Amino acid sequence: LQDHLTVGELLAQEALDRLYSPLLSLKLAELLIFFGEYTHHKHSYALGLKAKGDVLVQIGHYQAAMECLDVAGAEFLCLGEEGDWARSRISWVTACAWLDNIDRALQEAELARCVFIRSGENFWECVLDNNIAVFYDYAGRYDDALELYDKVRTTYPMLATLDTNTLNKYLALAEMNEAICLGWSGKFEQAYYLQTQAQKRFIELQEVDLFIASEVNLAELDYAQGYYGSALRRYYHAHDNLLEYNIADPTLLSEAKIQIANCLMKLHRVQEARCLTTEVVASERQAGVSLNAIFALREHTSVLMMLGDNKLALATIKEAM
Questions:
Q1: Do the beta carbons of residue 13 and residue 54 sit within 8 Å?
Q2: In sequence order, what are the residues at sequence separation of 6 or more whose Cβ sits closer than 8 angstroms to the Cβ of residue 298?
Q3: Structure-model confidence comparison of residues 192 and 309, the more confident one
Q4: Quick one: three-class SS letters along the chain?
Q5: What's residue 287's pLDDT?
Q6: pTM above threshold 0.85
Q7: Which of 86, 94, 133, 318 could disulfide-link to 112, CB 3.0 to 4.6 Å?
């Protein structure tokens, strides 16, 4: 523990490796911040703030993530750690884009890319490009996104510094994201192939959270094509895996139940859908998460209207407002 630099970097790497298990990654980030403060080791402290910012993006706290990453970035620059500063921009760029400031995000991304190119850090350039491609998707710039995904998937296997597991994990992430983009573009066959390929990699790597995410993505592809029975099976499978592996994220469980309810309505199993949306509304009210509660109330209203219970549907709409 006297080697503060090594301990800090090991904790930072572990937090990054666990990023898609966000509750665990957040605990590791907080531990690293404490370690840096306790030992007065500024580099470890900054790494902890970066790790916390990374995971805050994963759980949707974008403004808090940017603030955390800005402090980390300033610390890195004071220490002369330009590479660490550039790596802190990867999640910052994503958070900034999700807060609807894509131009600013792209400007910051270009500054970080210049650092990676100058230092020959092709891996981190690929990670940055993958994140940029994701918000190109959401902005409807599908051609730009697909061009970046293809670049990333071509570059990763050429990086001799990557071990097999790291290569497969990041390849799978790029495949999963590209498949989402292809699905939104209506290229379902290609999307299904890439998403299935990504899922196989996640299974081999025992990345449970990412496997569940890919299962949801495959269900969404089925749903978009009208294969509601297949989509329903996949949504149930994802929900059951959340329970089996003790992934105690109430938001994910609620989202899975809503998706199951949507499939049930398409299959004219409306009473079953009503039971599920009633459960979700109750749990979200108890949790007190206003935005999630509004989404749940909206879906519950749709079920009530299909059942012809217009009076209760109207009351639910008023509650959502």
A1: no
A2: 320
A3: 192
A4: CCCHHHHHHHHHHHHHHCCCCHHHHHHHHHHHHHHHHHHCCHHHHHHHHHHHHHHHHHCCCHHHHHHHHHHHHHHHHHCCCHHHHHHHHHHHHHHHHHCCCHHHHHHHHHHHHHHHHHHCCHHHHHHHHHHHHHHHHHCCCHHHHHHHHHHHHHHHHHCCCCCHHHHHHHHHHHHHHHHHHHHHCCCHHHHHHHHHHHHHHHHHHCCHHHHHHHHHHHHHHHHHCCCHHHHHHHHHHHHHHHHHCCCCCHHHHHHHHHHHHHHHHHCCCHHHHHHHHHHHHHHHHHHCCHHHHHHHHHHHHHHHHHHCCHHHHHHHHHHHC
A5: 59
A6: no
A7: 86
- The answer to whether the CB of 277 falls within 8 A of the CB of 299 is yes
Q: Per residue in 210-235, pLDDT tens? A: 999 999 999 999 999 999 999 999 99
Q: What angle do CA 273, 274, 275 make, to 5 degrees?
A: 90
d(CA 229, CA 242): 20
What residue has token string 């519950």?
A: 300
Q: Which two tokens stand for residue 41?
A: 């080791």
Distance CA 256, CA 253 (A): 5
Cβ(75)–Cβ(45) below 8 Å = yes
> 153: which 2 tokens?
């998937």
Task: Please say whether the beta carbons of 195 and 179 come within 8 A.
Answer: yes
Per the CB < 8 A criterion, the answer to whether 19 and 52 are in contact is no
CA distance 95 to 44: 23
